[in-house]
Amino acid sequence: MIIVLKPGITEEGIRHVVARVNELGLEAMVSRGTQRTIIGVIGEEDRIRSEPLLAIPGVEQAMPVLAPYKMASREFRPEDTVVRVRNAQFGGDSVSVIAGPCAVESRESLFEIAEAVKRSGAAALRGGAFKPRTSPYSFQGLGEEALKYLKECGEAFDLPVVTEVMDTRHVELVGRYADVLQIGARNMQNFSLITEAGRTGKPILLKRGMSATVKDLLMSAEYVLSQGDSAVILCERGIKTFEDGTRNTVDISAVPAVQVASHLPVIVDPSHGCGRRELIVPLARAAVAAGASGLMVEVHTCPEKALCDGPQALLPADFEEMMRHVAVIAEAMGKTVQTGQGKRSKENASR
Ligand code: PEP
Ligand code: MN
User: Fold this and answer.
1) Are residues 192 and 326 in the same domain?
2) Distance in angstroms (rounded) separating the CA atoms of residues 96 and 163
3) Which residues approach ligand 1 with their CB closer than 6 A?
């Protein structure tokens, strides 16, 4: 249910409405817009009725949220949610880039890659510790050893760390080392995992399943948000189509589609989206031009030796080029690229 408050309502009036909503056994989330203040009301569906809410002074309207996802919907919260993780900022007028290797392979290579991406303006470091591999015989990740390297490296370069958690049994462990918990495409609808992750209070990077609709993605975000503790960053990472020239098909339309339906920030991962190095920079440009709040890309200093996803890894020079293009496009859109150093503008983009 959403409550629209009367124009010009005072702060005291708003506090009164919130107190009344709470007395009815419901939770209130206040969104202050430029024109109107709206309150999202959460509680068991059959306990929320509009009549008692309409009786509260200051309430103009009380109406049900029509979308099946409630807390994730734009109706519930009209303004963009901005998720802040140290210098990285996802949502609103910010563009932040998460970069790093597919998998953490060694301490030395992670530091080398982190140094390169930091220099070019990455706002966060990625790297898999637990890898969801199609084959059980492929490299599965270094586990906790990788988490330790990630934490150390993130601190050394002042970059927040994003890494995937694949199993409910590892949520606590990964949460001890990472700043953002990534839920991979294969686990987007692993409801016990996303519920557990949503209880940590850590921001969750929720990747779209390869056969999931935008609505499915938002329903999964709702699972996380309904736990009450974690913020959500959505990630379009390509979906399965009949096209077989690319690993997946990056659904650029998902970016504005999410933004119409939801207040949550959405970023794009062109690396897993297409699987081909030469297509990643153009797709990154398209994603930012479509309004994405950021990117996630895989970078490796020696892709031919990468233990995972070498063919889609950008070289540091490619990444530098991508960041220059992203700065120009972001500026044209009135946005700011948030880097590990703070803001990046077109003027310092070539440095
Ligand atoms: C990843 O980002 O490391 C990954 C495995 O991506 P996805 O879940 O999108 O396949
Ligand atoms: Mn990968």
Assistant:
1) yes
2) 16
3) 102, 128, 132, 164, 184-186, 207, 237, 269, 272
DSSP category for residue 315: P
Instruction: Note the pLDDT tens digit of each residue in 247-299.
Output: 999 999 999 999 999 999 999 999 999 999 999 999 999 999 999 999 999 99
Yes or no: say if 205 and 162 are a contact pair by the CB < 8 Å rule: yes
Contacts of 63 (CB under 8 A, 6+ apart): 1, 2, 4, 50
Same domain, 259 and 119: yes
β-strand pairing of 180-183 with 161-164:
parallel
Written as six digits, the tokens of 140 are 């599965």
Task: Identify the domain containing residue 36 by its residue range.
Answer: 2-63
Task: Give 96's strand partners.
Answer: 294, 338
Instruction: Measure the CA–CA gap between 123 and 254, rounded to whole angstroms.
Output: 23
Name the closest-CA residue to atom 9, ligand 1: 185
- Measured in whole angstroms, the distance separating CA 184 from the mean position of its chain's CA atoms is 11
Q: Reduce the DSSP state of residue 237 to 3 states and report it.
A: coil
Q: Where is the domain boundary, 63, 91, 112? A: 63
Q: How far is the CA of 217 from the centre of ligand 1 (A)?
A: 15
Residue 132 CA to ligand 2 center (angstroms) comes to: 9
Pick from 179, 207, 187: nearest CA to 86: 179
| pLDDT tens, residue by residue, 193-237 | 999 999 999 999 999 999 999 999 999 999 999 998 899 999 999
Asked if residue 76 belongs to a domain, the reply is: no
Stated pTM of the model: 0.94
- What one-character DSSP code corresponds to residue 269? -
H or E element that contains 108: helix 107-120
